[in-house]
Amino acid sequence: MADAAAYQIWPPVALGMPLLAGLGITASLGDPIALPVRTSRDVATVLIVAFAFWNGSALWLMARHRTALLPGGSTRMILDRGPFGVSRNPLYLGLIAFDV
């Protein structure tokens, strides 16, 4: 018995496919809510910086403790500091927040 969950679909794909579908629908039908370009850029910048910090710190912590970076890898240590103190799966939480 392996020390890892059996995933039916890789979570980044499960999050990425709806994102790509949304981008395709927006490209063909237009934005459902029109924001000024400056506001859109400001919001996008804040989300990108927050995503980079959140996921970057989670990845750094995982690499520092030599635990599996990809789903399905063996667990060497349960992390409970940094982003892991807020969420059991901070990388997925970061992807979900970034997709919004």
> Helix/strand/pairing class, anyone?
mainly alpha
Number of helices: 3
Mean pLDDT: 83
Low-confidence stretches: none
Shape: flat
Q: Strand-and-helix sequence, N→C?
A: HHH
C-alpha termini separation: 37 Å
Question: Roughly how many Å is the radius of gyration?
Answer: 17 Å
Number of strands: 0
Q: Give the biggest sheet.
A: none
Strand content: under 5%
Name the helicity range.
55-70%
Model description:
The protein is an all-alpha fold and 100 residues long. Helices cover 57% and strands 0% of the residues.
Could you list some keywords that capture this structure?
flat; 0% strand; 3 helices
Task: Briefly characterize the structure.
The protein has three helices and no strands. With 100 residues, it is mainly α.
Break the fold down into its secondary structure elements and pairings:
Blueprint: H1 11-29, H2 37-64, H3 90-99
Helix pairs in contact: 1-3, 2-3
